[in-house]
Design brief:
The complex is a heterodimer of chains A (273) and B (234).
Chain A: H1 4-18, E1 25-31, H2 32-36, H3 39-51, E2 54-60, H4 62-71, E3 76-79, H5 82-90, E4 98-110, H6 123-132, E5 137-139, H7 145-156, E6 166-168, H8 173-183, E7 186-190, H9 191-195, E8 203-207, E9 214-221, H10 232-243, H11 245-252, E10 255-256, E11 259-260, E12 263-264
Parallel strand pairs in A: 1-2, 1-3, 5-6, 5-7
Antiparallel strand pairs in A: 3-9, 4-7, 4-8, 4-9, 4-12, 10-11
Chain B: H1 2-16, H2 20-53, H3 59-69, H4 74-85, H5 100-136, H6 141-151, H7 153-168, H8 172-178, H9 188-197, H10 201-226
Helix pairs in contact in B: 1-10, 2-5, 2-7, 3-5, 4-5, 4-8, 5-6, 5-7, 5-8, 9-10
Classes of the chains: A alpha/beta (273), B mainly alpha (234).
């Protein structure tokens, strides 16, 4: 007869058989827009080959990524929301911001373009077109970098985002694009996620190219003074790889459908204090 | 509807070619869920038996609470386990967050009340029949539990399979405590959510069919091994 103790012993053997060695692992919280672009699938194996470090990605919004960093549950974060990053570093949760690359946000919407966004020259006209025509706009609503940027754009043109035309989802970039596509609605997305998205249906890019839509991605190591268990050596190697000539070239040459998604812009040295 | 057929064909090709990633996440799904269900059964069934043969003051309340816990929202369990295992939480020093162990812990919490409740229901009905006999034979409490458990073994199997069913399709808790890390904590359900968010509906659906097929296969296999529904026995 099988005794419960035998079963328990077996169960624990199973669990520990799956445990990974933590020596060369770097856990990094990254934004959904970075991951959905597909670039991470290229970078992670290359980092593994060159540095021997296994990068484990936790894919969340910028808000949650920074929370995980604060709690010390990840070793580094890769995010894109300037104000939140500065606060994170100033509070001592991260050691420094290291700029890695940028892309841009675009507004996607129905090809029929009921709000007349296609004719807009600047972002202010584009957004006010949507709000005055009360065309349906879906918002991430998840405190992510994209969401924060969208809110700051609305507040810049003084539009109060409420009413039935404005739908807040509380979802990642992909889920938001799925919803926009199903509702044939407008939404703000980063270019990379859009190009890599498989369910575009009637949607197309209706507005792009305004300097306000610049989207900088930043690498921030979690402060080892606050969380001594973080793998600082591993994080340093990953950071060095990302800003190295090879890392930057790899980022710059990543393309989907012949379009470059990210522009590498790491500086020789960073803004560390 | 075209997505539906693409889903079936993508499931077919993933299985035929024994896609390495598919094998990896399927094995991990099974590892996490089977472990959680085994532990859940090892905790839940003795608890159910103990509740059946013992009479104490707050027994009704305990049973009612146990029944209510069957409906524990997985996402809340996930959040609580996350806060406990986080580096800033009480068990942070063990570094268990974002590992399969964390996923198992969350699933044990989700399935144990379910297994215990269903098992308790079966054992209680049997106890009503056996009560006078077992008392008159002057059996010890342990002998009563063993007799009940053996005679109710098929119902206990059903209880355990119900736990398996809840755990294998669960995503709310394991997404939070596992983090859906490729090759480490990615399982079938989190992979389906990921592919859906990328708009790859065919692949997501294909993985879904594989998940459902696997659950059916395992249930059939267990019934076959344990010989239920045969020789006129129920």
């Amino acid at each position: 007869m099988i005794r419960p103790s035998t079963i328990l012993a077996l169960a624990f053997t199973l669990i520990y058989a799956t445990a990974v060695s933590a020596e060369s692992v770097v856990r990094m919280a990254v934004t959904t827009s970075f991951h959905n672009s597909g670039l991470s699938d290229v970078l992670v194996p290359l980092i593994g080959e060159d540095t021997g470090i296994e990068v484990q990605l936790i894919v969340v919004g910028t808000g949650q990524a920074l929370r995980l960093g604060e709690a010390g549950d990840v070793d580094a974060v890769l995010v894109h929301s300037r104000a939140a990053e500065d606060k994170f570093v100033a509070a001592g949760f991260g050691t420094h911001r290291r700029e890695i690359m940028y892309n841009d946000f675009v507004i996607v919407g129905p090809s029929t373009d009921p709000a007349g966004v296609l004719a807009a020259e600047v972002i202010e006209t584009a957004l006010s077109g949507i709000s005055t025509s009360k065309s349906v706009f879906v918002s991430r609503g998840d405190d992510s970098g994209t969401h924060k940027r969208e809110l700051s754009l609305w507040s810049k043109i003084g539009v109060d985002v409420s009413g039935s035309w404005y739908r807040e989802l509380g979802s990642g970039m992909g889920a938001t694009l799925n919803t926009a596509s199903a509702m044939n609605a407008y939404t703000l997305t980063d270019r990379a996620s859009w190009l890599n998205f498989g369910n575009k249906r009637e949607l197309r890019i209706v507005f792009e190219g305004d300097p306000e839509l610049f989207n900088q991605y930043v690498f921030i190591p979690v402060n080892p003074d606050r969380h001594p268990h973080v793998n600082s050596d591993g994080v340093r190697l990953v950071e060095e790889w990302l800003v190295s000539a090879k890392g930057q070239t790899t980022i710059g040459s990543y393309m989907i459908d012949g379009q470059t998604l990210f522009v590498p812009n790491a500086q020789g040295n960073d803004s560390s204090d | 509807m075209s997505e539906f057929w693409e889903g079936i064909s993508s499931a077919f090709w993933l299985i035929i070619t024994l896609d390495a990633d598919l094998v990896d996440i399927t094995i991990r799904s099974l590892q996490v869920t089977v472990t959680a269900v085994v532990i859940g059964a090892a905790l839940g069934i003795p608890l159910a038996a103990w509740l059946t043969v013992n009479r104490f003051r707050y027994r009704r309340t305990t049973v009612a609470i146990l029944n209510a816990l069957m409906g524990l929202p997985p996402v809340v369990v996930g959040l609580i386990v996350y806060l406990l295992l986080s580096r800033s939480g009480p068990f942070g020093v063990f570094g268990l967050l974002f590992t399969p162990t964390a996923m198992i812990i969350a699933q044990v919490i989700i399935v144990t009340p379910l297994i215990a409740s269903v098992a308790h229901q079966a054992l209680r009905d049997l106890w009503a029949d056996y009560h006078d006999l077992l008392i008159s034979l002057n059996t010890t409490r342990w002998q009563r539990i063993k007799t009940l458990a053996w005679d109710a073994r098929r119902s206990l199997l059903t209880a355990t399979l119900a736990g398996f069913g809840r755990a294998i399709g669960e995503i709310g808790a394991i997404m939070i405590v596992g983090g859906n890390i490729d090759h480490v904590t990615r399982v079938l359900t989190t992979a389906i959510a990921l592919e859906t968010s990328k708009g790859n509906f065919a692949l997501a659906l294909g993985l879904g069919f594989i998940l459902i097929g696997m659950a059916i296969a395992i249930n059939i296999a267990i019934h076959w091994v344990s010989g239920t529904e045969r020789r006129g026995r129920w």
